[in-house]
Description:
The chain is α+β, with helices and mostly antiparallel strands. It is built from two helices and six strands, in the order H-E-E-E-E-E-E-H.
Amino acid sequence: MMKKLGVIGIGTLAAAVVIIVGLGIWFFAGGESIYYTQIDNSRLTEGKPRDGVIDRQGGMPYSYTLTAYNEKGSGKEITFGASRKLREGAYLKLTVSPVRGVVEWSEVEFGELPAGVRERYENM
Length: 124
């Protein structure tokens, strides 16, 4: 009886370790999506970093909530932080993690946008 419990316990522990490692990989490296947006400073919220408090903007003093589009042109509202006021009208490529939100952004030229995204902005 004791031997069976030991095997079951080891199997359960191994399964838990696999699940935790898998979730860690997904949380830190996987499941990211790419979206594109255009800066509209009328949608900018300026505030103070919240020292010691976890927030979705990572303590950044500027917060943007903008409509962003995936490569097929499907849109959704995305909020992200910035350390400075961004250039009005600039196009950004956003790397979005399902759990952590926007983990990276970079400015891109209009010609670098996927066709589905360019169509959205041409028709505005």
